[in-house]
Amino acid sequence: MKKRIFMYLFLFSVLLIVFQYVNSKNIIDKYEKDIQTYKTNILGQEENINLLEDQNYELNHFSINGNEEALTFFEDKGYKTEELIPAIIDGLYSMNNYKGEDHPIVPYVSMTESKMVINKVRILNHKWIIADFTDTENWGEIFVNYEIDENNELKYKLVDYFLYPMNN
Question: Which strand (E) or helix (H) includes residue 133?
Answer without folding.
Answer: strand 128-134
